[in-house]
Amino acid sequence: MGGIHRRDFLKQTALAGAGLSLTGGVALGQTKHLKRRGSPNEKLNIAIIGVGHRGGANTGGVKGENIVALCDVNDRFLDPASKQFPQAKRYKDWRKALEQKDIDAVVCSTTDHTHAFVSVAAMELGMHVYCEKPLAHSVWEANKVRETYLKHKDKIATQMGTQIHATDNYRRVVEMIQGGAIGKVKEVHVWCGRVGPGGDWPKEADPVPAGLDWDLWCGPAPVHPFSYKVLPADGKWNCLSWNLFWDYGQGTMGDMGSHMIDLAYWALDLDYPTSCEAQADPWPASPVTCSKWLIATYQHPAKGDRGPVKLVWYDGVKRPKSPQGFDLNAWHKGVMFHGDKGTLLADYPFHYLLPKKDYRGFEPPKMEIPASRGHYVEWIEGCKTGSPTLCNFDYAGKLIQHNLLANVAYRAGKKLDWDAKALKATNCPEADQFIKREYRKGWTI
User: Fold this and answer.
1) d(CA 286, CA 339)
2) Would you place residue 208 in the very low, low, confident or very high pLDDT band (cuts 50, 70, 90)?
């Protein structure tokens, strides 16, 4: 079994409106049934959508395959990528890129506010998708991406870019929590020390840099005057700038929550919460940027033989109470599980069982989760053979919907009683505008 060739999968494709400026969505033509796949050694034809920064790193993870298309709204990033892969066709508009007939798979590393647009369009065209985290820019989008994947899951492989999920340490923590090393877990605390701005739009506009299509970069979001405070002049256009503005990102929760809450979500087999509430500065929320700091508290119902779980998220300067012998103010990020027999404290590469005196001579549970061959390899093998990917869009869609609910609670200014099936805060109709955002005219998913 090998890669699905889109040229064999689709009878015809068409982009809605043909003129591209009319819509962000993709309209499908009729499709053929899949033919039997070929050799697992056959290389995938991959389109890279977004080639700078995380796009460069993600391209490095799949460069052993055939890179047949490169797309970026900025020539500053597209030009060097084209020199690296001169055989690849180049595009500025991702919608045009998806018209290319020989694409099997897409790696999406655009800014957060277009992740769902690219991912849904590619999946509807029968393409495998790797998407940088977070999977979506809103709760509704996360659900839409998940539903689209589930509709096509027997034919495509997906993976969200939570690379830490593939590390041995995360696997050992999951085994310890699920093996009862600290007993029954009732609370988990997760934090990241990244500080937000809590401010307003830049007062003065800057000239749009040569080679950047600013209108296309804004995509479905409102078009504001260009500013280097959103996209810095030195080219370091990372999640510490545009991500802090609600129109384009979801702040620290959207970015680092994807990595940190992932461990708790996996280890405790969490699902949708029943409620979420938030504290933050500024309060009430800025209509423009994320908060300087945020504390969000979720309540999760019992599941299987696990009881109810409270999950608390902290970012900015806030931290949970430090356990004896540790100063969590010195930890930039971490996850702390409290069980009825002890505490497990973890970061990316290490973990501690506390109190230490109670775990002298402790024998860890048998290693049952096999080591990953690599986050990208896992996806590539999934594309070629149908083997599972652990961060597929079913799992990732639920995780990101869960995480972004914290920002909804903050912006609505009220504790939310959450009905995940209806995608509704049953006690807070004013939350609707933050659950599903309004798109710029002509853009749809």
Assistant:
1) 37
2) very high
Average pLDDT over residues 45-70: 95
Q: What are the tokens at 431?
A: 């939350």
The long-range contacts involving 362-369, CB below 8 angstroms and separated by at least 24 positions, are: 362/181, 364/172, 364/175, 364/176, 364/179, 364/181, 365/175, 365/176, 365/178, 365/179, 365/181, 366/175, 367/171, 367/172, 367/175, 368/175, 369/171, 369/174, 369/175
Question: Distance (Å, rounded) from C-alpha 48 to C-alpha 376?
Answer: 14
CA of 342: how far to CAs of 83, 103, 345, 352, in Å? 54, 51, 10, 11
Q: What are the residue ranges spanned by the domains of the chain?
A: 6-164+383-393
List pLDDT tens digits, range 386-422.
Answer: 999 999 999 999 999 999 999 999 999 999 999 999 9
Angstrom distances, CA of residue 415 to CA of 5, 50, 372, 429 = 47, 36, 39, 12
- The candidate with the shortest Cα–Cα distance to 142, out of 424, 390, 395, is 395
Tokens for 209? 């840099």
Judged by average pLDDT, the poorest of 182-191, 226-235, 375-384 is: 226-235
| Domain 6-164+383-393 homologous superfamily, CATH | NAD(P)-binding Rossmann-like Domain (3.40.50.720)
The one-letter code for the residue type at 145 is: V
Rounded CA separation 282/214 (Å): 29
- Which string of DSSP letters, residue by residue, matches 12-34? -EE-TTSSSTT-SS-EE--BPPP
**Mean of the per-residue pLDDT values of the chain:** 90
> Nearest 5°: CA angle at 316, between 270 and 222?
85
Place of tokens 């000239």: 207
160, 165, 123: which is closest to 10 by C-alpha?
Answer: 123
Please state, in angstroms and rounded to a whole number, the distance separating the CA atoms of residues 262 and 413: 25
Could you tell me which of 129, 54, 6 has the C-alpha nearest to residue 393?
129
Amino acid (one-letter) located at 435: I
Give the bridge partners for 312, in sequence order: 189, 297
Model pTM score: 0.91
Q: Which residues contact 285 (CB under 8 A, 6 or more apart)?
A: 291, 410, 411, 413
Which pLDDT score, from 0 to 100, does residue 239 have?
A: 60
Alpha helices in 129-238 (DSSP H): 139-152, 168-178, 214-218
